[in-house]
Give the backbone structure.
Amino acid sequence: MKVLIVEDDPLHRSYLHEAVSAALPECETVIEAENGTMGEKLARDHRSAHVVMDLQMNNRNGIEAARTIWKERPDTRILFWSNYSDEAYVRGVSRIVPDGAAYGYVLKSASDERLKLALRSIFVEAQCVIDREVRGMQQKSLGQAKGFSDSEYEILIDIALGLTDRAIARRRGLSLRSVQNRLQQLYEKLDVYQNASDDHEDSRFNLRARAVTVAMLRKLLNYSALERAESELAEWLKLG
Amino acid sequence: MKVLIVEDDPLHRSYLHEAVSAALPECETVIEAENGTMGEKLARDHRSAHVVMDLQMNNRNGIEAARTIWKERPDTRILFWSNYSDEAYVRGVSRIVPDGAAYGYVLKSASDERLKLALRSIFVEAQCVIDREVRGMQQKSLGQAKGFSDSEYEILIDIALGLTDRAIARRRGLSLRSVQNRLQQLYEKLDVYQNASDDHEDSRFNLRARAVTVAMLRKLLNYSALERAESELAEWLKLG
DNA sequence: GTAGATGATGCGGGATCCAGCAAGACGCGC
DNA sequence: GCGCGTCTTGCTGGATCCCGCATCATCTAC
């Protein structure tokens, strides 16, 4: 068995190396990559089907790297090892995992024991292992209990990118009014109206900009989600 | 000499501990805190005047912690040790450093040697040590060459928070038109007009929202800056 | 002292955003 | 068929935003 480690922090990288060696005696080779781009290349070269991947990296983030790796080999098993359980990350990961693929999501704050257990479960038993905390996020996100539907998330992305209503309508194939409807839903759910007092003269928020900030503060959005959305937008602009 | 380490990542914390011990034989005690809140408390309890501080922490970020530490003892020497040289961080730090205080800013990607040198320079020699890359950011930021003036940065924060023009005017003590003038300057500098084609029917951006996103992508803003701005805003709202 | 640069303010207008109201489309259960 | 809920769309209007044009104050340079 070969295991590929993709992680930009040298300390974390060597810690992972050690953990992999200890948890998986049957692993004869450990390869290290220090950013997403190198990770993709090494995965291709070594035909490695077992990857441990950091999400937040400078050069090319983990979600991007995982996506191209899975596109080339959908049966690759990937364990995401991240500092955060932001909804933006969790959502980003679940969007790209292929049907039936074994993967995992473990927080860096987990104990040695948990990490090693996850390594064995995924790489040997082909089971999915999702950290408790992350799991909670996932359910809150997918279940519509208090979470956000895909369409609401979509429009959140669009206003975060700074598109006008009309541009959003064209991009998503909707009428102008429908876009504005969804915006209202979004404002509702993000609870943007709180400090908008009745008096017109009182301090009030620009709902559109406020929504983005509130989403950021609630970690529905983060830098890497923005980055991804921005490059998708550039792609779409080229076509149009 | 006592040295206080404030860093939430256990691996980094123990690495720092070792580096401090090696670089400063005259240091008889090393204290560790795993978040900003604990850092403030331990600095107070131990009267430690030598601090190594991570910037990005969950509970209470480094800038906040440093601010309260410096407020209580302005002669404290603090070395910031961070993954990033985002303009938002650099600006945040330079806003809070007291006159004449010795401090440093070293990136985590720096070599062992650089870190140890910085530790000695700051804690023993009371000199300021700013990483090359960070320094560049600082000059780009303070010099008005291509950087942002304080007033532009201020208004960027305000629209990022989602305030209306009127609210900004009241908060900053300006007329409505002046606020809009500054916004135009900001849009100019952020180069938000690029994809706004001449035809009114073509895809265009909502300048206000777009400006915030561009600033995020350029790292003029980041999560912790937003967080700080949000709590300042809450403060201001209470008074008003 | 005069000219020029910079910044604050007012006025006006076109574009955009926010939202209430109502009419139609679609699926679902009975 | 019929009712119900959800989603989409058009119309409308008021509020806000974006910005060109013009005025005035302050400051600097020569």
About this structure: Chain A has a mean pLDDT of 89.
